[in-house]
Protein backbone atom coordinates (compact mmCIF):
# COMPACT_ATOMS: atom_id res chain seq x y z
CA UNK A 1 0.00 0.00 0.00
CA UNK A 2 2.83 2.42 0.81
CA UNK A 3 4.51 1.73 -2.53
CA UNK A 4 1.29 2.24 -4.46
CA UNK A 5 0.52 5.44 -2.51
CA UNK A 6 4.01 6.69 -3.22
CA UNK A 7 3.56 5.94 -6.92
CA UNK A 8 0.24 7.78 -6.99
CA UNK A 9 1.78 10.77 -5.20
CA UNK A 10 4.72 10.82 -7.57
CA UNK A 11 2.40 10.67 -10.58
CA UNK A 12 0.22 13.48 -9.17
CA UNK A 13 3.28 15.59 -8.40
CA UNK A 14 4.69 15.12 -11.88
CA UNK A 15 1.36 16.10 -13.39
CA UNK A 16 1.18 19.25 -11.24
CA UNK A 17 4.72 20.25 -12.16
CA UNK A 18 4.00 19.75 -15.85
CA UNK A 19 0.82 21.79 -15.52
CA UNK A 20 2.60 24.60 -13.69
CA UNK A 21 5.30 24.68 -16.35
CA UNK A 22 2.68 24.91 -19.06
CA UNK A 23 0.93 27.77 -17.28
CA UNK A 24 4.23 29.59 -16.70
CA UNK A 25 5.12 29.21 -20.39
CA UNK A 26 1.76 30.67 -21.33
CA UNK A 27 2.17 33.67 -18.97
CA UNK A 28 5.73 34.66 -20.00
CA UNK A 29 5.52 37.08 -22.92
CA UNK A 30 7.47 36.24 -26.00
CA UNK A 31 10.68 38.19 -26.53
CA UNK A 32 10.07 41.49 -28.29
CA UNK A 33 6.33 41.44 -27.56
CA UNK A 34 6.54 44.94 -26.02
CA UNK A 35 9.03 46.55 -28.40
CA UNK A 36 9.16 45.35 -32.00
CA UNK A 37 12.34 45.47 -34.05
CA UNK A 38 12.87 48.92 -35.55
CA UNK A 39 10.88 50.85 -32.89
CA UNK A 40 11.11 54.65 -32.96
CA UNK A 41 11.87 56.13 -29.51
CA UNK A 42 11.90 59.93 -28.98
CA UNK A 43 11.83 62.13 -25.84
CA UNK A 44 8.58 63.78 -26.97
CA UNK A 45 4.92 63.69 -26.02
CA UNK A 46 2.51 61.57 -28.02
CA UNK A 47 0.73 63.15 -31.01
CA UNK A 48 -1.39 60.07 -31.72
CA UNK A 49 -0.88 56.28 -31.39
CA UNK A 50 1.73 56.24 -34.16
CA UNK A 51 3.44 59.66 -34.01
CA UNK A 52 5.38 61.91 -31.63
CA UNK A 53 4.45 65.61 -31.34
CA UNK A 54 7.12 67.91 -32.82
CA UNK A 55 7.14 71.70 -33.13
CA UNK A 56 8.40 73.63 -36.15
CA UNK A 57 12.17 74.24 -35.88
CA UNK A 58 12.38 72.03 -32.77
CA UNK A 59 15.48 69.81 -32.68
CA UNK A 60 15.18 66.32 -31.25
CA UNK A 61 17.51 63.32 -30.96
CA UNK A 62 15.80 59.93 -31.30
CA UNK A 63 16.76 56.27 -31.54
CA UNK A 64 15.44 53.38 -33.60
CA UNK A 65 15.69 50.31 -31.38
CA UNK A 66 16.23 46.67 -32.31
CA UNK A 67 17.53 47.63 -35.76
CA UNK A 68 19.27 44.30 -36.34
CA UNK A 69 18.82 44.67 -40.10
CA UNK A 70 21.57 47.35 -40.11
CA UNK A 71 23.79 45.71 -37.47
CA UNK A 72 27.49 46.06 -38.24
CA UNK A 73 27.15 49.27 -40.23
CA UNK A 74 28.64 52.56 -39.03
CA UNK A 75 25.99 54.93 -40.34
CA UNK A 76 22.73 54.65 -42.27
CA UNK A 77 20.45 57.21 -43.89
CA UNK A 78 17.32 58.10 -41.92
CA UNK A 79 14.41 59.38 -43.99
CA UNK A 80 11.70 61.72 -42.69
CA UNK A 81 9.01 61.17 -45.31
CA UNK A 82 6.26 63.66 -46.09
CA UNK A 83 3.76 63.64 -48.92
CA UNK A 84 3.11 67.34 -48.18
CA UNK A 85 6.54 68.96 -48.28
CA UNK A 86 8.90 66.21 -49.48
CA UNK A 87 11.44 63.96 -47.83
CA UNK A 88 14.36 64.93 -45.62
CA UNK A 89 17.41 62.72 -45.12
CA UNK A 90 19.64 62.84 -42.04
CA UNK A 91 22.48 60.57 -40.94
CA UNK A 92 21.89 57.92 -38.30
CA UNK A 93 24.73 56.47 -36.22
CA UNK A 94 24.59 52.71 -35.64
CA UNK A 95 25.62 51.23 -32.28
CA UNK A 96 25.30 47.81 -30.65
CA UNK A 97 24.77 44.58 -32.52
CA UNK A 98 22.09 42.03 -33.28
CA UNK A 99 18.80 42.64 -31.49
CA UNK A 100 20.48 45.37 -29.40
CA UNK A 101 21.35 47.49 -32.42
CA UNK A 102 20.30 51.15 -32.22
CA UNK A 103 20.26 53.91 -34.80
CA UNK A 104 20.63 57.38 -33.28
CA UNK A 105 19.70 60.44 -35.34
CA UNK A 106 18.92 64.13 -34.86
CA UNK A 107 16.18 65.94 -36.77
CA UNK A 108 15.00 69.55 -36.74
CA UNK A 109 11.32 70.00 -37.52
CA UNK A 110 10.83 71.63 -40.92
CA UNK A 111 10.07 75.36 -40.71
CA UNK A 112 7.07 74.83 -42.99
CA UNK A 113 6.12 71.41 -41.66
CA UNK A 114 2.54 70.21 -41.33
CA UNK A 115 0.41 67.12 -40.71
CA UNK A 116 2.43 63.93 -40.09
CA UNK A 117 5.63 62.34 -41.39
CA UNK A 118 6.98 58.77 -41.30
CA UNK A 119 10.52 57.86 -40.23
CA UNK A 120 12.35 55.14 -42.19
CA UNK A 121 15.95 53.95 -42.00
CA UNK A 122 18.41 52.20 -44.30
CA UNK A 123 16.02 52.46 -47.25
CA UNK A 124 12.92 54.49 -48.03
CA UNK A 125 10.63 51.49 -47.64
CA UNK A 126 12.01 50.34 -44.28
CA UNK A 127 9.69 52.21 -41.91
CA UNK A 128 10.26 52.41 -38.17
CA UNK A 129 7.35 51.23 -36.02
CA UNK A 130 5.28 52.65 -33.16
CA UNK A 131 5.67 49.93 -30.55
CA UNK A 132 7.49 52.39 -28.26
CA UNK A 133 4.61 54.87 -28.61
CA UNK A 134 1.60 52.58 -28.19
CA UNK A 135 1.49 48.91 -27.15
CA UNK A 136 -0.32 46.30 -29.23
CA UNK A 137 0.05 46.00 -32.98
CA UNK A 138 2.57 47.93 -35.05
CA UNK A 139 2.31 50.64 -37.67
CA UNK A 140 4.64 53.12 -39.31
CA UNK A 141 5.98 55.62 -36.77
CA UNK A 142 7.05 59.24 -37.14
CA UNK A 143 6.18 62.80 -36.11
CA UNK A 144 3.09 65.00 -36.09
CA UNK A 145 3.69 68.76 -36.32
CA UNK A 146 2.21 70.97 -33.58
CA UNK A 147 2.35 74.63 -32.59
CA UNK A 148 3.67 75.95 -29.25
CA UNK A 149 0.34 75.17 -27.60
CA UNK A 150 0.34 71.56 -28.85
CA UNK A 151 -2.30 72.08 -31.55
CA UNK A 152 -1.83 70.17 -34.84
CA UNK A 153 -0.50 72.20 -37.77
CA UNK A 154 -2.51 71.31 -40.88
CA UNK A 155 -1.45 74.05 -43.31
CA UNK A 156 2.05 73.64 -44.74
CA UNK A 157 4.28 76.67 -44.72
CA UNK A 158 2.17 78.44 -42.10
CA UNK A 159 4.39 80.49 -39.78
CA UNK A 160 4.36 79.63 -36.10
CA UNK A 161 2.22 81.91 -33.95
CA UNK A 162 4.06 84.97 -32.61
CA UNK A 163 5.35 84.71 -29.04
CA UNK A 164 3.22 86.26 -26.30
CA UNK A 165 3.60 90.00 -25.81
CA UNK A 166 4.58 91.07 -22.29
CA UNK A 167 3.19 94.04 -20.37
CA UNK A 168 5.85 95.44 -18.01
CA UNK A 169 5.37 97.57 -14.89
CA UNK A 170 7.71 99.14 -12.35
CA UNK A 171 6.99 99.91 -8.72
CA UNK A 172 8.54 100.03 -5.27
CA UNK A 173 7.91 97.73 -2.28
CA UNK A 174 8.39 99.19 1.18
CA UNK A 175 7.45 97.30 4.33
CA UNK A 176 10.50 98.64 6.17
CA UNK A 177 8.68 101.81 7.18
CA UNK A 178 5.23 100.25 7.25
CA UNK A 179 6.47 97.62 9.73
CA UNK A 180 5.46 94.63 7.63
CA UNK A 181 2.06 95.82 6.42
CA UNK A 182 1.15 94.08 3.14
CA UNK A 183 -0.02 97.49 1.93
CA UNK A 184 3.66 98.13 1.28
CA UNK A 185 3.61 95.62 -1.57
CA UNK A 186 2.57 97.01 -4.99
CA UNK A 187 1.47 93.49 -5.98
CA UNK A 188 -0.91 93.25 -3.02
CA UNK A 189 -4.45 92.40 -4.18
CA UNK A 190 -3.49 91.37 -7.72
CA UNK A 191 -5.79 88.74 -9.24
CA UNK A 192 -4.68 86.22 -10.17
CA UNK A 193 -1.88 86.44 -7.62
CA UNK A 194 1.52 86.77 -9.30
CA UNK A 195 4.55 84.57 -8.75
CA UNK A 196 6.83 86.79 -6.67
CA UNK A 197 10.54 86.03 -6.93
CA UNK A 198 11.51 87.58 -3.63
CA UNK A 199 12.65 86.45 -0.20
CA UNK A 200 13.03 82.66 0.05
CA UNK A 201 12.01 81.93 -3.57
CA UNK A 202 14.26 80.22 -6.13
CA UNK A 203 14.57 82.28 -9.36
CA UNK A 204 15.16 79.05 -11.26
CA UNK A 205 11.69 77.52 -11.18
CA UNK A 206 10.10 79.42 -8.29
CA UNK A 207 10.50 76.81 -5.54
CA UNK A 208 11.43 77.54 -1.95
CA UNK A 209 15.04 78.23 -0.88
CA UNK A 210 16.66 79.53 2.30
CA UNK A 211 15.32 82.97 3.24
CA UNK A 212 18.21 85.39 3.90
CA UNK A 213 16.23 88.64 3.82
CA UNK A 214 16.33 91.03 6.79
CA UNK A 215 13.41 90.91 9.23
CA UNK A 216 11.10 93.51 10.72
CA UNK A 217 12.51 94.19 14.19
CA UNK A 218 11.17 91.77 16.77
CA UNK A 219 9.28 89.65 14.21
CA UNK A 220 9.82 86.78 11.79
CA UNK A 221 8.39 88.86 8.91
CA UNK A 222 10.63 89.78 5.98
CA UNK A 223 11.40 93.47 5.61
CA UNK A 224 11.20 94.80 2.03
CA UNK A 225 12.84 97.99 0.81
CA UNK A 226 13.16 97.28 -2.88
CA UNK A 227 12.26 98.06 -6.44
CA UNK A 228 9.80 95.73 -8.14
CA UNK A 229 9.49 94.64 -11.77
CA UNK A 230 6.19 93.16 -12.85
CA UNK A 231 5.85 91.17 -16.08
CA UNK A 232 2.38 90.18 -17.30
CA UNK A 233 1.79 87.50 -19.93
CA UNK A 234 -0.96 88.97 -22.10
CA UNK A 235 -1.57 85.73 -24.01
CA UNK A 236 -4.64 83.67 -23.18
CA UNK A 237 -3.15 80.47 -24.63
CA UNK A 238 0.66 80.38 -24.57
CA UNK A 239 3.22 80.47 -21.75
CA UNK A 240 6.03 83.04 -21.77
CA UNK A 241 9.61 82.25 -20.61
CA UNK A 242 11.66 84.83 -18.71
CA UNK A 243 15.34 83.88 -18.53
CA UNK A 244 17.22 87.04 -17.61
CA UNK A 245 16.79 90.31 -15.70
CA UNK A 246 19.02 93.07 -14.33
CA UNK A 247 18.87 96.79 -13.57
CA UNK A 248 21.65 99.35 -14.05
CA UNK A 249 21.50 102.68 -12.23
CA UNK A 250 24.66 104.69 -12.74
CA UNK A 251 27.54 102.71 -11.23
CA UNK A 252 25.19 100.17 -9.64
CA UNK A 253 24.11 96.99 -11.41
CA UNK A 254 21.49 94.88 -9.67
CA UNK A 255 20.91 91.21 -10.46
CA UNK A 256 19.28 89.50 -7.47
CA UNK A 257 17.99 86.68 -9.71
CA UNK A 258 20.98 84.75 -11.14
CA UNK A 259 19.88 81.70 -13.07
CA UNK A 260 16.44 83.21 -13.62
CA UNK A 261 14.28 80.71 -15.49
CA UNK A 262 10.54 81.15 -15.05
CA UNK A 263 7.74 80.34 -17.48
CA UNK A 264 4.78 82.65 -16.92
CA UNK A 265 1.54 80.80 -17.68
CA UNK A 266 -1.05 82.30 -20.03
CA UNK A 267 -2.70 85.23 -18.28
CA UNK A 268 -0.24 85.07 -15.38
CA UNK A 269 2.21 87.56 -13.87
CA UNK A 270 5.75 87.52 -12.48
CA UNK A 271 7.20 90.00 -9.97
CA UNK A 272 10.96 90.39 -9.46
CA UNK A 273 12.13 92.06 -6.26
CA UNK A 274 14.69 91.68 -3.44
CA UNK A 275 15.94 88.22 -2.55
CA UNK A 276 18.41 89.10 0.24
CA UNK A 277 22.17 89.38 -0.01
CA UNK A 278 24.62 92.25 -0.20
CA UNK A 279 23.64 95.49 -1.91
CA UNK A 280 25.70 95.91 -5.10
CA UNK A 281 26.05 99.71 -4.87
CA UNK A 282 29.44 101.31 -4.06
CA UNK A 283 30.30 101.95 -0.45
CA UNK A 284 28.77 105.09 0.94
CA UNK A 285 25.19 104.26 -0.01
CA UNK A 286 22.85 104.17 2.97
CA UNK A 287 22.06 100.45 2.94
CA UNK A 288 22.37 98.35 6.09
CA UNK A 289 21.46 94.66 5.85
CA UNK A 290 20.61 92.26 3.03
CA UNK A 291 18.58 94.65 0.89
CA UNK A 292 19.98 93.59 -2.49
CA UNK A 293 17.44 95.50 -4.63
CA UNK A 294 17.23 98.74 -2.65
CA UNK A 295 17.26 100.84 -5.80
CA UNK A 296 16.08 103.99 -3.99
CA UNK A 297 19.60 104.30 -2.55
CA UNK A 298 21.21 104.45 -6.00
CA UNK A 299 21.43 108.25 -6.15
CA UNK A 300 24.49 110.10 -7.39
CA UNK A 301 25.75 113.63 -7.78
CA UNK A 302 23.36 115.95 -6.02
CA UNK A 303 21.56 114.62 -2.99
CA UNK A 304 19.40 117.68 -2.53
CA UNK A 305 15.90 116.69 -1.53
CA UNK A 306 13.44 117.10 -4.37
CA UNK A 307 16.20 117.53 -6.97
CA UNK A 308 16.76 114.59 -9.32
CA UNK A 309 20.25 113.38 -10.08
CA UNK A 310 19.01 112.79 -13.63
CA UNK A 311 20.16 109.18 -13.79
CA UNK A 312 17.62 106.96 -15.55
CA UNK A 313 17.51 103.29 -14.45
CA UNK A 314 17.95 100.84 -17.31
CA UNK A 315 16.02 97.57 -17.03
CA UNK A 316 17.32 94.62 -19.09
CA UNK A 317 15.10 91.57 -19.57
CA UNK A 318 15.19 88.40 -21.63
CA UNK A 319 11.65 87.35 -22.55
CA UNK A 320 10.72 84.69 -25.11
CA UNK A 321 14.47 84.23 -25.60
CA UNK A 322 14.86 87.82 -26.83
CA UNK A 323 16.76 90.52 -24.91
CA UNK A 324 14.95 93.82 -24.38
CA UNK A 325 15.84 97.09 -22.66
CA UNK A 326 13.49 99.54 -20.93
CA UNK A 327 14.47 102.99 -19.69
CA UNK A 328 12.77 103.99 -16.45
CA UNK A 329 12.34 107.59 -17.53
CA UNK A 330 9.96 108.24 -14.64
CA UNK A 331 12.75 107.16 -12.23
CA UNK A 332 10.32 104.93 -10.34
CA UNK A 333 13.02 102.51 -9.23
CA UNK A 334 15.37 105.19 -7.88
CA UNK A 335 12.60 107.31 -6.31
CA UNK A 336 13.00 110.29 -8.60
CA UNK A 337 16.77 110.46 -8.35
CA UNK A 338 17.06 111.30 -4.65
CA UNK A 339 16.58 109.37 -1.41
CA UNK A 340 13.09 109.90 -0.04
CA UNK A 341 14.14 108.30 3.22
CA UNK A 342 16.64 111.10 3.85
CA UNK A 343 14.08 113.80 3.08
CA UNK A 344 11.50 113.05 5.73
CA UNK A 345 9.30 111.17 3.25
CA UNK A 346 9.70 107.90 5.05
CA UNK A 347 7.49 105.58 2.98
CA UNK A 348 9.05 104.89 -0.43
CA UNK A 349 6.16 102.73 -1.66
CA UNK A 350 5.20 103.23 -5.31
CA UNK A 351 2.31 101.46 -7.02
CA UNK A 352 2.97 99.72 -10.34
CA UNK A 353 3.17 101.92 -13.44
CA UNK A 354 3.16 100.35 -16.91
CA UNK A 355 6.33 101.19 -18.84
CA UNK A 356 5.95 98.76 -21.78
The percentage helix is under 10%
- Per DSSP E runs of 2 or more residues, the count of β-strands stands at 19
Major sheet size, sense and barrel closure: 9 strands, mixed
Discrete helix count: 1
Oligomer: single chain
How would the global form be characterised?
Answer: elongated
Give the overall average pLDDT: 86
Over all CA atoms, what is the radius of gyration? 32 Å
Strand content: 25-35%
- Class from secondary-structure proportions: mainly beta
Ranges with pLDDT <50 over ≥5 residues?
Answer: 1-33
Termini Cα gap: 101 Å
Strand and helix order: HEEEEEEEEEEEEEEEEEEE
- Order of strands, widest sheet: 1-4-7-6-5-8-9-3-2
Topology:
Elements: H1 2-27, E1 39-41, E2 46-48, E3 51-55, E4 59-65, E5 75-81, E6 88-95, E7 102-108, E8 116-121, E9 142-146, E10 166-174, E11 195-197, E12 225-233, E13 240-249, E14 252-254, E15 262-264, E16 269-272, E17 314-319, E18 322-327, E19 350-354
Parallel strand pairs: 3-9, 11-16
Antiparallel strand pairs: 1-4, 2-3, 4-7, 5-6, 5-8, 6-7, 8-9, 10-12, 10-19, 12-16, 13-14, 13-15, 13-17, 17-18
Question: What can you tell me about this protein's structure?
Answer:
- This protein is mainly beta and 356 residues long.
- The chain has one helix and 19 strands.
- The strands form three sheets. Strands 1-4-7-6-5-8-9-3-2 form a nine-stranded mixed β-sheet, with no helix packed on it. A five-stranded mixed β-sheet has the order 11-16-12-10-19, with no helix packed on it. Strands 13, 14, 15, 17 and 18 form a five-stranded antiparallel β-sheet that branches.
